[in-house]
């Protein structure tokens, strides 16, 4: 039985990861920012003392706010990640660092392979990219698991927003020129546990659903699954929704490295949504 420590463990991913680890029969210690602030290097050193695996789910995740608060985002996403990596490396603890599609430029037309050179275009992406580099240099055995388009019961997300807006508006407009892989936090948690159990080598891994769609396609799928008329969801271009941080037009991540190491990929996004939606709508 392994002992896991989750930093940032009370967020959307952390809550489901804790459940999945417990279900696997391992022990899990969940910490949030109030009990373990990853920007406090000494506190991180003390916390990592007695565990086998650390998953760093802690992050500044407010993508638009990061544009005007890049230093604060950097202190969590880069310096905080470095603190966790240094402590884990010194004690020989397996580390999983959760990262993001925002480290890429979003201009590709075919899936980003795990070894594609990062080229972030937003402050959030730059800080997460710096976190990846820090983790890779301080702890080469760490797994950097990039994910994207996450939704889950434990936090605000696009699927929850669509469900709320369905009750407030007759029609909604959603962008149809950004492509990605909607990924259920339960499926990502399951993949993280499988990667650790398989003892895969360190480096970059992609933890996203199979298949791809647009935000408009995802919104329509939510409506269809929930039994609402999908024609209420209308497609618009991103130029109608200009945001402080640039959004990647193409965020599809390739997962070839999983099959190369005999690790089953995450299921198709539409199948996951079907299973997830009752819990999300409850
Ligand atoms: N959501 C997505 O669509 C998405 C996509 C790609 C990648 N990711 C990555 O997935 C990971 C998990 O994201 P999530 O969606 O679960 O985000 P989340 O719900 O915002 O959770 C992040 C957690 O980090 C904690 N945190 C912030 N600053 C901290 C600090 N200094 N020390 C310790 N904890 C701190 C927050 O706790 P407090 O609220 O208590 O401060 C929060 O609970 C992140 O690395 C994120 O970059 C997310």
Can you describe this structure?
Catalyzes the reduction of dTDP-6-deoxy-L-lyxo-4-hexulose to yield dTDP-L-rhamnose. This protein has 282 residues and is an alpha/beta fold. It has a single domain (3-157, 181-210, 252-267), classed as NAD(P)-binding Rossmann-like Domain (Rossmann fold, 3-Layer(aba) Sandwich), CATH 3.40.50. Helices cover 40% and strands 16% of the residues. The chain has 9 helices and 12 strands. The chain has helices spanning 12-23, 41-47, 70-91, 123-138, 158-168, 185-198, 215-226, 256-260, 269-281; strands at residues 3-7, 27-30, 53-56, 94-100, 143-147, 150-151, 172-175, 179-180, 183-184, 203-206, 213-214, 233-236. The strands form 4 sheets. Strands 2-1-3-4-5-10 form a 6-stranded parallel sheet, sandwiched between helices. Strand 4 (94-100), helix 4 and strand 5 form a beta-alpha-beta unit. The mean pLDDT is 97. It binds NADP nicotinamide-adenine-dinucleotide phosphate. NADP nicotinamide-adenine-dinucleotide phosphate (NAP) binds at residues 7-8, 10-14, 32-34, 36-39, 57-59, 61, 76, 80, 98, 100, 128, 147-150, 155.
